[in-house]
Amino acid sequence: MVFKAAAIQMCSGVDPEKNAADMARLVRDAAAQGATYIQTPEMTGALQRDRKAMREVLRDEVNDIIVATARGLASELDIHLHIGSTAIARDDGKIANRAFLFAPDGRQVATYDKIHMFDVDLDNGESWRESSAYEPGAEAKVAALPFGRLGFAICYDVRFPQLFRSEALAGAEILTVPAAFTRQTGEAHWEILLRARAIENGAFVIAAAQAGLHEDGRETFGHSMIVDPWGKVLASAGGTGEAVVLAEIDIAAVKAARGKIPNLKNAREFTLDTVSDAAGGVAA
């Protein structure tokens, strides 16, 4: 199966309505260029560090403008549209960082809530505590689609290879990493992490990213990317501003890569032993 995929690069602001309009314009552009699977970045709906202001525009998924716009676009353009994520009000009063996948008939195929929270302190003074605002997910997801099996992840999830391995073992041929990577961490790790996840699982990786200086003051790395199962970067964007990144995906390449390096089949169970040389002797 061969199809064209697109990763949409955005610079989302604090206004969900404007972000929805920007998303729609870019998605239409990608569809006009032949993409039938289109992915948007993490927090497509809004990047807003002010928690009070965020809650003022927060909606449940029934009333969310990004969800409604995406459902309509999928149906209008006859595409699979993957909203990398947007903030959604949960029934219990908490917030989910939630991805959505819509089918060409507008049907909601799957959702995925980001599992790993970005709670870090960086060298440049940046400090992030996603867990203070968001409720982490607890379930990995793989969706069986007409063109292949797709595994979900969001941004910081990329640093947890066990998530991607579990999806690959469940049949995922396409792994997704929509993101809003910080500039500091992106410069150091973004490409190598994406290529590593592709190589170690023999899978395509599609990663739509936020890029540039945002209204809330943060700066994101961009460089939206599509990587093949051998680790080759098929297409990528720059580090600032909007972009539509396109590549042809040939699912047969997954079988070929896994045939050459069958590490998914060759993996073995093992035990772990720890030894100590605290007394200065030779560890046995």
UniProtKB/TrEMBL annotation:
UniProt keyword list: Hydrolase
Entries under SUPFAM superfamilies matching the protein: Carbon-nitrogen hydrolase (SSF56317)
Coiled coil segments of this chain: none
Keyword Nucleotide-binding: no
Pfam families reported for this sequence: CN_hydrolase
All copies of domain CN hydrolase, residue ranges: 3-251
InterPro entries for the chain: C-N_Hydrolase, C-N_Hydrolase_sf, Nit1/2_C-N_Hydrolase, UPF0012_CS
N-terminal signal peptide: none
Gene Ontology molecular-function annotations: hydrolase activity, acting on carbon-nitrogen (but not peptide) bonds, in linear amides
Amino-acid biosynthesis found in the keyword field: no
Family: Belongs to the carbon-nitrogen hydrolase superfamily. NIT1/NIT2 family.
Full protein name: Predicted amidohydrolase
Organism whose genome encodes this protein: Xaviernesmea oryzae
